[in-house]
Amino acid sequence: MPRRWRAARCGRESSSPTTRPVRSRRSRSWRPRPGGSRPTRTCGGSPGRPDLRRGLRLARRAAAVILFLVVAVAGILVPAAWLTARPGDPALYPPAPGDESVTVRLVAGAWHSGLLLPREALAQAAAEAGDGALIAVTERFGAYPALEIGWGDAGFYRAVPTIQALDWRLALKALFTPGGRPAVLHVVGVAAEPGAAFPGAGLVTLRLSRAGFRRLAAALAQSFATRDGHPVEAGPGLYGPSLFYAAQGRFSLLAVCNHWSAGLLDAAGLPTTPLLDILPQGLVRDLSWRAGAHAP
Asked: Annotated region Disordered: where (predicted)?
């Protein structure tokens, strides 16, 4: 068919499902020829099917773009994680065989993590160091064998107790406010076994040396904002016997609750990776890979 006829007919349907126009050699006029219908030809494609070659080309280009982005992100994040990784202190962690140790647990939820600490050991470490704020907190919750303590944005922490109550506007405001936002500490008295007290959370059990635990307690004491040497209560907590306390530090994308938990564990001698520790599950994986910790 001449090119000009093909261009004129490109993309048009046949005028009849059972006939197709042909040109008579004798009359040189167009008349229908009996016979079965023939699939129409689409521009640049094969009869009766979409342009597969064009689709394949687009798919290959999309795959190439995705691969490039993955490689580029990995090329940035992997060196960044390596450069910001904290080595830990082998003199503190893990405890030497036969040495006295203290068992603590990381409580990892969907978006937040905290530390479950034995209250008696914490009170002893606070008394040895003379940390008035920590002494007051352990006395305030003296009826409980363990304390679950977390740190976070003062507004978001109070307003979003569960993942179901998540408010993205508050979350974005907490993460991206220039200069960060005020922080609070949440302290809960825990009497039940960890699995029963936190049924929906991931628990990572860590055995710290006594010296490492004292370092953790000292870092925790520095997290409390004080007035005349006493911790500043900031209202009732979210669940169980709990209280909020005013805290040191500013909450931001570069300093979230999981970074705080990782920072206390790093003070106890554990190696951590802040870039991985932004999310609770990243912190759990980090502790598994670098500190040999395992969730039960």
From this structure: 1-51
Per-residue pLDDT of 196-207, as tens digits, reads 999 989 999 999
What is the SS3 assignment for 16?
coil
Considering just the CA atoms, what is the radius of gyration of the chain in Å?
Answer: 33
The rounded percent of the chain whose pLDDT value lies above 70 is 68
Residue 205, token pair as written in the block: 């059990």
Does position 40 have pLDDT exceeding 60, yes or no?
Answer: no
Q: What span, in angstroms and rounded, lies between the C-alpha atoms of 68 and 153?
A: 36
Alpha helices, H only, the chain: 3-9, 52-84, 119-129, 132-140, 154-159, 168-176, 194-197, 210-223, 257-267, 280-291
* pTM (two decimals): 0.71
Q: Is 81 helix (H, G, I), strand (E, B) or coil?
A: helix
- b or e along 123-135 (b: 16 or more beta carbons within 10 Å of the residue's beta carbon)? bbbbeeeebbbbb
Angle at 258 between CA 132 and CA 117, to 5 degrees: 45
Tokens of 41: 């030809």
In the block, tokens 């704020």 appear at 133
Hey, what amino acid is at 60? R
Instruction: Quote the CA–CA distance of 143 and 138 in Å, as a whole number.
Output: 9
Distance CA 79, CA 77 (A): 6
Domain boundaries of the chain, sorted by first residue: 3-33, 101-291
